[in-house]
Amino acid sequence: MPDRNHVDQVRISLHSGGAIAASSHLAPIAHAFLVRHLQQLETPDIDELTERITQFASRPRPYLPDETFGQPHAGMPQQDVEWCWVNPNRVLLKETGTQSFIHDASDRAHFAHQPQRGLSPDRITGIAEFARRIAREHGEERGLHTLLGIGADGSISQDGVLRINVDGYTSPLGDIFRIHGNGNHRLAALAALEVPCVPAEVEWRRGPFSTSPCRIDEDSDERIAYRTLLHTFGVASYTDPANFVQNYSGVVTEYWPFLIDNPHSAVESLTSLETLAGEPYTSSIGRLPRHLFNDPATLAQAGHHVMKHLSELEFGLSARSFIELSPTPRGPIRRFFDRR
User: Fold this and answer.
1) Which of 79, 149, 259, 269 has the highest CB neighbour count under 10 A?
2) CB-based burial, 111-145: b 16+ in 10 Å, e otherwise
3) Residues 292-308: pLDDT tens digits?
């Protein structure tokens, strides 16, 4: 019988943290959670499962940038791979919406020798039928080994078959995952059955991360101002802080990759993260207050305010006298905007 404190620790880790390493002494408890849930599960009807799968696939998605690969001043990505028990509610499908459902997981596909079963009307219904098959097995050992590669003791098979593999991103709201290759159909079916955890191979994306280039055109003012705000207040950094005007190829960050593209994406991404985590984020972001990220216009305005004062400060520091300032400041930042 597992220690009650350990059971509570697993629940908290899966809910608030998102994952438990398969090498952890708590992993057998996570496995027991899954088996017990399936053993006690009443098989939902097909319509209910179809609705759950549709909602699971339609969840809002945060912005997930690329890691940098040898960009100047950005450093190399830090990657590692491990098996974990992950909370399905914190896992995104590989593509948006139902685009990841690329084949028929229906009963007809499973029972190919029984053509009288007929075609599934669509792939979502097929996954719902797949979920019902899983539910009817009630956590049977052989079925779980085939489906997820786990044994009776919770050990994960090293047979080289990837059942579910994901990219993992750490965040101040806990870990967030996205299907990397295999597992879209399995994950959607198990999430529809509301299982507490699934085993997955996690390739951790540790950063630093970079984002899209910011071209010199009329539409880039807001993005440049926003990224300067992030740089100034410790959320992200320009790749070459000493050469300001060369930094419009992006910014890098380790802790907030979801927020580094533009104000609109940042507001949507933070809301998406809160939805996936199941709780609001109330702390500061870098040295910026959380409430700034409620509105893209507020973020853009704050960014422009910072740009204005940085330009004035830059000129003031380079002037002969702090008292007698020239009426036409022309530092690199000002010159950049003057030529636009």
Assistant:
1) 259
2) eeeeeeeeebeebbbbbbbbbbbbbebebeeeebb
3) 999 999 999 999 999 88
